[in-house]
Amino acid sequence: MASLLPYASHASHAPVGQARQGLCPQMRWCVGAGMRAKTTGSGAREDSRNLGGGSSRGVVARGRKEFQQPHQPQQNQELWNQRSPGRDGLDESKNGVFALLLINFGVHIAATSFLPGLPAMLALSHLKPAWWQFITAAFVHANWDHLFGNAFSLLVFGRMVEEEEGAFGLWVTYLVCGVAGNVASYLSSPHSATVSLGASSAVFGLFAVGVLTKVRLDLRRMLEALVLGAYVWRQVMSETAAVLSGGTTVGGLSVGHWAHLGGAIGGVLLVLLLSRLPKGDDDF
Asked: Most C-beta atoms within 10 A of its C-beta, which of 104, 201, 277, 279?
């Protein structure tokens, strides 16, 4: 590969005063021993000179006005910015999952700080449900432990889904699986005093979608699908056993096992439905 040499390294034939005035700060980069110098004024022309010979005296003597600032450093910086994850070290392609996290944390902060009636309006009331509660219940949580537990799973499996399907695909999966889980939870105990809330139904849908989208005819992806699939299978079997045994409670709150299973089933149905659509963009 040809080496890149600064123009200043070939200025030994020019007087010291001319070299200081003509080369600093305008240095022209050249490939190997030759470069193309662009002259200015009425007699503008393209001139190719060998900087290793005696002709370099005339090139230096023409002064710094005849040489333009090189663009290579700026072009290299632009290429680096395109290939690097970002100036702050974060991958900008993962903004979808961070948007969901911000919404969940924002709702909980508002509910615990200055809008105490917000959970009652957003959570799914089985006694008298409003249509929007089947959606909004996936963004409201009972306490900080509940929120952080779901946020961890959302961060891990949400990023996995976003890598495969993009931000829009992640948002569609979250909403569809959240609604499916809330519908399943409501149907398990309709017209009762039960209140359903939390992102766990959507998270279980991300479990299923995250594994199914990894199933490809590729050794690395098949290994990922096997490891993740084993984890998701254990979670689903645990939820099924809990439903059959009458349910469990954590911190005095009943766990919505039907919502978890409904979210996972919603994720599977979503993947099966989209797999039958004509192939288009990488996102949903």
From this structure: 201
